[in-house]
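Run log // design_07
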């Protein structure tokens, strides 16, 4: 290997075959490198007085048993990576090709700054739910979970991928900042802890990098099947009769409904987490029976805050489970959640040794009363006092971890009583690996506006790349109370092709809030959603393999022009979705990029040649959705099973239909069925594995040339 020049002034502290490469720069910054079990390089840079108080809660990858070796030129070698010290930093290469050069600077003892100059990478994607645009470049992010009213929920997942197929994860402190800048300095990271720790990995493709991150962080789980249906919410349904009337209206209008969400009106005081509002909810058992008879599930809101005049506050106080401030006193304060005369309240400690037992008892009781899933709100935690202490950890040090450990405590607590129950938590916040607890996020208290609708696509795509595949938005927008007919229709159309389809807002958000025309269009798309549930549920199974449900266009075509990465996406393997985010008067025609090959209009089945930009007329009754030639799409209409195929000479494709009981975690022990459909030209075959009781007994195969009814066995290879 060619010897590289090492700048004078370095104090090198590496031994041949040491377990880690380590050196200290001339300005006193120590940089330590470890190879890891997941084939990434861990880089930790520290100043003399660094703080790593929250290190025990960081996502950590074990070190590899294979050691670094020092080369003749003073560089370090591990697997295919080479680390070459440079002045105040290092260069990382992979298979002889430079990835980037990082340099570090102690900024007056207040912050440690890393400037990372990527050799080939110019575009960055991921980082949770921060960016209003898909590409993170030329933006600055404060790595602090918070929800901004009328803006969106900022969810920090400090992971990103690059257009050079590298991935990077930072173990972020709550006051860290990330800068994705221009080509001269393509990335900067600052931390007041005087420590910067990251993991870097080079992959062949972005999808492979994302899939490995899902696996490494155990970010995957299956939600219950009903969670992929239509969910109705608003702020909020105030009485039992109002919920009954709502469901009856859905039945009268013959619009499918899977679940209803209750906001803060189901209890009296924040922290009750029980049916204490008996005036407005007089017969909970009767409500549960009614909803079960109608096949509608119930989701209720809970928060981590407990008002001082609740029984749960007293219990938490007696058990020492309420967080204290830096004066070692219980941190009570007044906020908007002090409902119905409560003067103040406190917040629960999710890492207390009794947390799982406490949540297990309370949330299992909710399940016993007929509640099917949990809406965990305000868990950033919202507007938490800066002087909160989590034991020895300051609020900003633990802040981003709060929702993760709250979700974990609820999950573990409920599982202790219901070990086979499949969990679903609709959460406004999350952190690395939250997905394993059945967490689905939404984009927060977003604005009622066309620009807000446009921003939802980057939010969803970057969440999916960051290990959070289950995502949704408040259909119609949250703020202000009133939404608008055309906007609401477009949002409902978009929502039908997102992982979680849920309407919510400060005012009415039911499908019929406008005229007959709007209601008919919305009803049509909700019915499309239900017809596609076998395809959607099979797509959700792919999340276990680290494949997001909503995928950037480069998953399908790496040549997709940048402007179309912002505003269209793949929903599963075969559906290309192009949300309309402008009024027809402002955009009478919409430009769409179709990848190479032939595509079919979802509704008309008109064939269009791809590999180019096309223009379609904006029509309020139709959302531009295209189906890839060769597609295999399982569907159910009026309880009959269908398989829609788009055969073509010379086209080979496959799709794996997945099904299980939809309710338990028994799928983890093999209780499911997979049917691998293959389409070669017009020849369709199937290969079944698993429990056949979950497979369709009879299917009608539909193509542009006609249809026929058959069985899986008849299609067997």
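design_07 sequence
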């Amino acid at each position: 290997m060619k010897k590289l020049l090492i700048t004078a002034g370095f104090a090198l502290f590496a031994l041949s075959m040491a377990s880690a490469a380590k050196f200290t720069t001339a300005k006193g910054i120590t940089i330590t490198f470890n190879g890891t079990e997941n084939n990434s390089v861990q880089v930790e840079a520290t100043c003399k007085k660094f703080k790593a108080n929250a290190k025990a809660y960081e996502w950590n990858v074990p070190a590899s048993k294979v050691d670094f070796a020092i080369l003749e030129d003073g560089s370090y070698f591990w697997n295919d990576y080479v680390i070459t010290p440079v002045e105040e930093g290092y260069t990382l290469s992979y298979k002889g090709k430079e990835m980037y050069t990082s340099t570090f600077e102690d900024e007056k003892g207040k912050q440690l700054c890393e400037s990372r100059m990527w050799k080939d990478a110019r575009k960055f994607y991921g980082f949770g739910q921060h960016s209003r645009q898909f590409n993170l470049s030329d933006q600055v992010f404060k790595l602090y979970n918070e929800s901004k009213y009328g803006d969106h929920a900022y969810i920090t997942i400090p992971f990103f991928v690059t257009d050079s197929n590298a991935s990077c994860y930072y173990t972020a402190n709550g006051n860290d900042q990330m800068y994705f800048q221009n080509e001269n300095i393509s990335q900067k990271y600052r931390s007041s802890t005087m420590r910067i720790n990251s993991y870097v990995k080079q992959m062949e493709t972005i999808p492979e990098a994302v899939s490995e991150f899902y696996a490494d962080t155990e970010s995957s789980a299956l939600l219950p099947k009903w969670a992929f249906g239509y969910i109705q919410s608003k702020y909020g349904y105030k009485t039992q009769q109002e919920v009954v009337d709502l469901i009856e209206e859905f039945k009268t209008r013959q619009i499918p409904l899977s679940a209803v969400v209750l906001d803060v009106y189901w209890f009296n005081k924040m922290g009750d987490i029980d049916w204490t509002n008996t005036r407005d909810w007089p017969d909970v058992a009767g409500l549960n029976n009614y909803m079960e008879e109608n096949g509608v599930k119930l989701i209720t809101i809970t928060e981590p805050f407990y008002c001082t005049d609740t029984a749960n506050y007293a219990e938490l106080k007696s058990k020492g489970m309420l967080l204290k401030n830096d004066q070692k006193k219980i941190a009570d304060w007044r906020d908007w959640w002090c409902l119905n005369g409560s003067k103040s309240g406190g917040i629960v400690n999710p890492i207390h040794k009794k947390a799982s037992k406490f949540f297990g008892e309370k949330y299992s009781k909710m399940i016993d009363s007929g509640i099917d899933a949990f809406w965990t709100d305000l868990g950033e935690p919202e507007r938490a006092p800066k002087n909160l202490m989590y034991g020895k950890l300051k609020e900003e040090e633990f802040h981003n971890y709060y929702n993760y450990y709250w979700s974990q405590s609820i999950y573990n607590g409920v599982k202790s009583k219901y070990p086979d129950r499949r969990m679903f938590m609709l959460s406004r916040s999350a952190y690395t690996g939250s997905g394993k607890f059945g967490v689905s996020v939404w984009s927060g208290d977003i604005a009622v506006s066309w620009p807000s609708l446009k921003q939802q696509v980057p939010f969803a795509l970057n969440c999916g790349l960051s290990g959070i595949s289950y995502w949704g938005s408040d259909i119609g927008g949250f703020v202000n109370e009133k939404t608008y007919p055309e906007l609401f229709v477009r949002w409902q159309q978009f929502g039908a092709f997102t992982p979680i389809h849920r309407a919510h807002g400060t005012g009415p958000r039911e499908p019929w809030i406008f005229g007959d025309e709007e209601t008919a269009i919305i009803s049509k798309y909700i019915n499309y959603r239900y017809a596609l549930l076998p395809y959607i549920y099979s797509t959700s199974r792919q999340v276990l393999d680290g494949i997001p449900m909503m995928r950037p266009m480069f998953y399908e075509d790496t040549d997709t022009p940048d402007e179309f990465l912002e505003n269209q996406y793949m929903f599963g393997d075969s559906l290309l979705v192009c949300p309309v985010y402008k009024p027809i008067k402002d955009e009478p025609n919409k430009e769409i990029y179709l990848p190479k090959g032939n595509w079919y209009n979802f509704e008309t089945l008109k064939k269009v040649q791809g590999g180019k930009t096309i223009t379609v007329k904006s029509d309020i009754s139709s959302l531009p959705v295209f189906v890839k030639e060769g597609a295999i799409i399982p569907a159910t209409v009026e309880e009959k099973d269908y398989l829609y195929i788009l055969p073509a000479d010379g086209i080979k494709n496959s799709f794996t239909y997945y099904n299980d009981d939809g309710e338990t975690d028994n799928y983890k022990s093999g209780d499911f069925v997979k049917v691998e459909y293959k389409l070669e030209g017009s020849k369709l075959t199937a290969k079944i594995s698993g429990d056949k009781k979950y497979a369709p007994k009879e299917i009608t195969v539909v193509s542009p040339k006609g249809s026929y009814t058959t069985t899986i066995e008849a299609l067997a290879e």
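Residues 1-18 have pLDDT under 50 and may be disordered.
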